[in-house]
Amino acid sequence: MVTDKSIVQTKYFTFSQPPNELPLESGLKLGPITLAFETYGELNANKSNAILILHALSGDAHVAGMHQGDEKPGWWDSMVGPGKAFDTNKYFVICSNVIGGCRGSTGPSSINPKTNKPYALSFPMITISDMVNAQRFLIDHLGIDKLLCVAGGSMGGMQALQWVANFPQRVRSCIPISTGLKHSPQQIAFDEVGRQAIMADPDWKEGNYYETGQPEKGLSVARMLGHITYMSDQSMEDKFSRKLKDKNYSFKFETDFEVEGYLIYRGDIFVKRFDANSYLYITKAMDYFDLSADKLIPENKTLDSRFLVIAFKSDWLYPPYQSQEIVRLLKSRHVHSSYCEINSTYGHDAFLLEIKEETRLINHFLSNIFKG
């Protein structure tokens, strides 16, 4: 069993070998497909304790624990592990990197077996539904008929909702955090500015940069823009205010303010671990996502899944009204759902930081569903 200090290893599952490629929403097909995934805890005898954690835009399969040689644990280590919100003493936790990603799963940086070169822009367009349909093969591979819970924040919340839409009989409960039923024009606009920053970089080369090096400047700017939307006005004031890196202004186009230095640092770190084409594909998938009206629950269908919807007051990227729309839709269809809005100043990043309150809510929710 995984403990806080355990070393975890990423595993790989390959499926959809030709001629049985995965059909995509675009009408194209993709295969073979490899998914990188990690598991924590133990699957019980009747396979009723499996929880699928879905990651956000820049996340990956490494949700918790340490890899050999790592200095930092997985991206949601504070929530996944023994005694934590997703308690691995009770639950079998799974997390996989999405298709289209660049952290072990098949994406535009992967080798196309037909050409023996990276897919680049020959990689087909994907959607959140395609990501979920690919994950279903992994869950089948693990021998799990029904998931106790699907959970995630931001794009992870989109995937959790899509699991319910695609496979309602296979999901007992759903915890969408800091997300919505569809992107607003403002959210699409932010994504498009990030994509344009990447594509405007001469090093992008229409996506064919794998032999020469990726468009670091464009990808860095895209990430800097993203970080601004992840924080709130209050959290930026608390963290940076107008603090200077030096005592005086430089009167040059240099990083005078600490907030400028922080954004540049975040951009520089990001380009070392993420693929620019994956950023394009995944943000586009998020913009295509739409489970409004009867797309989440068809009009002639009923749904037995239970929901815990969590939002954060200062989140202006996925503001609480979008989570409230999810709950209103569920209530109108008589689906058991609870809504909790946490009074946090962290903005969208709160789903990664407000651990104490999220843990309390999730522990209580899961304990009412899973009796051991």
CATH superfamily of the largest domain: Alpha/Beta hydrolase fold, catalytic domain
How much is the average pLDDT?
A: 96
Into which percent range does the helicity of residues fall?
25-40%
Biggest sheet statistics: 8 strands, mixed
Low-confidence stretches: none
| Termini separation | 17 Å
User: What is the CATH architecture annotation of the largest domain?
Assistant: 3-Layer(aba) Sandwich
Rg is: 20 Å
Total number of domains = 2
Count of distinct strands? 14
Query: What is the fold-level CATH name, i.e. the topology of the largest domain?
Result: Rossmann fold
What structural category arises from helix and sheet content?
Answer: alpha/beta
**What is the C-level CATH assignment of the largest domain?**
Alpha Beta
Can you count the helices? 10
What percent of residues are in strands? Answer: 15-25%
